[in-house]
Amino acid sequence: MRESYEHTNRLADLETAIDAYQRVVEATSSTSPKKPSRLKSLGDVLHDRYCYTGNEAHLETAIDAYEQALETLSPGSPDCTATLNNLSIGLADLYQRRGDVSNLEAAINACQQALKDTPSTSLAYPRRLSNLGTLLLERYYRTNTLADLEAAITVLQQVVQATSLTSLDYAGRLCNLGNSLCDRYQHTKALTDLDAAINAYQHAWKAMSSDSPGYAALLNCLGVGFYDRYQHTKDLADLDAAINAYQQSAEATPISDPHRLKRLNNVGLGFRDRYSYTGGLADLDQAIDAWEASWSETQAHLVSLPVAYQLGSLHRGAGIASLLIAAHLEKAVKSPPHAEAAHRRALEIAEGSKSRLLTQIVGRGPLPLPIGLPPQGATRELQLLATLTDLETKELFTYNYFDSMGEKISGLREQRSGKVVKEGEQLSRLRLRQNLLQDLNSFWTELAQFSPEGKDYVALRRGASPSWNDLTLLAEELGAATALLSFFRTTNRAMFFLLRAGWQAPYVIEVPFQEAHWNDLIRFLPFLAFSSSIPVPQPRSISPFSRPSLSSGVV
Q: Do 482 and 398 form a contact (C-beta atoms < 8 A)?
């Protein structure tokens, strides 16, 4: 019956198997030598159900079955070690759910007991050793204690040595070792750790197939290693190697993968640093191209994402916007023929970086309908908007932001079952949201072709970011007596973009967050806003690429 489920991956087959195992366990005498093994088998199918449903109650019943089995199993027996291993996996899952460190310690203890009684010649030995290394690494992430990291590295080194070069797990285990060595480098700044990490990544790259799910992430990790070493040594060869790895990683990452944006960002950071090293405008253009790709993909996919993902994308997008605006302003300084275009694009990004999510929600409120719109169309639109807004409001109330520890290839547990946890409720909301958006977009596409008023109405509904043409049209409508002012801030600087009717590009002012500069700005802005003649802008700030606040670390 369990074999049937493994073949079909249908929950109904799994429930049938669970029911059968439960009846067998209930029918088995407590004194029967078969009782422990049957409890273990029940625990296995119960854990499979947890992997399918993500329901914590199902995980608790699996752990309970394993613990009951261990009460009567002989220590050191094969059944006992296998049950301890599976109990360790269950407890680790419970720790991931609850964050209770006692569950993590219990998982480590069970794994150590299982490993102690597993012969080093057993096929299960490398897998159980890998589980222990991953659990110890997880404890380090919790404590940030170097001793815990040292213990994890020692075990992960043993894992690599115990794994056959032809094993499908070899590359992933090398990656885990590389990650832990990079973590130790962050503690000690010892270049030997970074060299060892890069060596592990390179061997993993040679061993991993290019169609492996972890291939792009591995290349990104390799790029991070080379980039960190460049920061340490300032050897341009390391920076070139980092850029090459980042580019391959981004190219190997599907557009639908959320990690692609971070990997494109890393490509841009690499070219930015090479531009700072060489001064070559070709490197600056490459950095701009990478960040523009990341920015445009973020904007294109944002509206279709659930609210929680939109919030995360906006958080990351603010960093990309800072880098991209700084790069365009640098281009304006270094290449005067491109200055106007660079300033225009910088303004577009500054405006586009402001909350698309808020704009969308506001844009779904009551709006005057275009003249001539059929009543049934208006009613249908309002129904779709109301349902979508209600769905997103619920998501906002339940949203919690968790900052991940960064992208690493870890495969945190080499579990018995590779089943993906299916969050039924989340999938249901996602499908509903996609269907609502599809219906709305179809309606809006038709409406935009209905009349010029319909096109403007749809643009407002969709919450689209304003283009340069949109901004100049607005300035023309407001007239020569009115100035548009856009504000953008980074960690320690403010940027002001001033636009008036008839201008070919905005006037750009950059001001550090210092009182003297702000006093100058207070006197200067009214002159710019209300004067009919604007002076030629004078350099008032240092080069954007020499500002630490506009730089960000590799992700």
A: no
Q: Which residue has the higher pLDDT, 40 or 421?
A: 40
User: Rounded to an integer, what distance in angstroms lies between the CA atom of residue 85 and that of residue 66?
Assistant: 10
Give pLDDT, residue 529. 58
What is the CB neighbour count within 10 angstroms for residue 231?
Answer: 15
Q: Tell me how far apart the alpha carbons of residues 355 and 280 are, in angstroms, rounded to a whole number.
A: 34
pLDDT in tens, 136-167: 999 999 999 999 999 999 999 999 999 999 99
Which candidate, 358, 254, 351, places its Cα nearest to that of 311? 358
User: Which tokens go with 129?
Assistant: 């050793």
98/93 Cα distance (integer angstroms): 9
Give me the DSSP letters along 274-306: HHHHH--HHHHHHHHHHHHHHHHHHHHHHTTS-
174, 207 in Cβ contact below 8 A? yes
407-446 exposure pattern, b = at least 16 Cβ within 10 A, e = fewer: ebbbbebbbeeebeeeeeeeeebeeebeebeebbeebbee
Cα separation, 114 vs 497, in Å, equals 64
How many whole angstroms from its chain centre is CA 237?
A: 29
Residue 155: count other Cβ atoms within 10 Å of its Cβ: 21
Give the lowest-confidence range in 126-130, 482-486, 497-501, 514-518: 514-518
d(CA 471, CA 529): 16
What 3 state SS string does 95-155 have?
A: HHHHCCHHHHHHHHHHHHHHHHCCCCCCCHHHHHHHHHHHHHHHHHHHHCCHHHHHHHHHH
- pLDDT above 80 (res 365): no
The pLDDT, as a whole number, for residue 1 is: 55
Helix or strand run (H / E) with residue 430 = helix 424-448
Tell me 6's DSSP state.
H
* Distance separating alpha carbons of residues 478 and 389, to the nearest angstrom: 32
Tokens linked to 504: 């070919």
Helix count and strand count (H, E) for the chain: 22, 3
**Whole-angstrom Cα Rg for the chain:** 29
Residues recorded for the chain: 555
CA terminus-to-terminus distance, the chain: 45
* pLDDT recorded at residue 359: 56
- With contact defined as beta carbons under 8 Å apart, do 351 and 486 qualify? yes
Under 8 Å between Cβ of 169 and 414: yes
- Mean pLDDT across the chain: 81
Place of tokens 């169309």: 377
Model pLDDT, residue 548: 31
Hey, which residues does 297 pair with through a beta bridge? none
Q: How many CA atoms lie within 13 A of 367 on its CB side?
A: 23
Which string of b and e fits 238-248 if b means at least 16 CB within 10 Å? Answer: bbebbbbbbbb
Starting at the edge strand found earlier in the chain, the sheet holding 493-500 runs 483-489, 493-500, 507-512
Residues 420 and 209: their CA atoms lie apart, in Å, by 22
Locate 22 and state its tokens.
Answer: 């439960």
Q: Is 3 helix (H, G, I), strand (E, B) or coil?
A: helix
In the chain, the amino acid numbered 368 is P
* Local structure of 512: helix, strand or coil: strand
Q: What is the pTM (predicted TM-score) of this model?
A: 0.77
